[in-house]
Amino acid sequence: MTTDPHFWTVLDTLVREAEVVIERPAGTPHPRFPGSLYPLDYGALRHTRSGDSADIDVFRGVSGRHDVTGVVATVDARKRDAELKVLLGCTAQEAEAVRAFLSWPGSFGCLVLPRGTQFVQGGP
User: Fold this and answer.
1) Residues 63, 44: contact at Cβ < 8 Å?
2) Ordered structural domains, the chain, with CATH
3) Which of 52, 108, 61 has its CA nearest to residue 84?
4) Which of 21, 34, 71, 96 is 20 to 30 A away from residue 13, measured at CA?
5) Confidence of residue 48 (pLDDT cuts 50, 70, 90)
6) Dihedral, CA of residue 48, residue 30, residue 23 and residue 20, to nearest 10
7) pTM attached to this predicted model
8) Chain-centroid distance, C-alpha 22
9) Which of 87, 92, 42 minimizes the C-alpha distance to 66?
10) How far, in Å, CA of 79 to CA of 77, rounded?
């Protein structure tokens, strides 16, 4: 699959110019689903705006790096909502953990779109 390099360049700029704030560290229970634990640090890019009018969501890999390694596209049929979440410094295994965390049976779907082969090498 080919992607437009301009998309990634613009996203790099957005991430570089925003403050990454981690709101839920890895292992924190989801507020509405206490049995689901966040597999990675989860937060947002401050002073940005996503499709839901909130800050753009991010998942940060254990490397702690802020380089963009992919995005996650989610669709919620019940809320009639779709949005992108940014993967920062993630390995392929971490991206898969995010996909599994966000893939709920029924009306919620998730797809990981890697940035070429730029997932961080290694893993937890």
Assistant:
1) no
2) 5-114 (3.90.80.10)
3) 52
4) 96
5) very high
6) -50
7) 0.89
8) 12
9) 87
10) 6
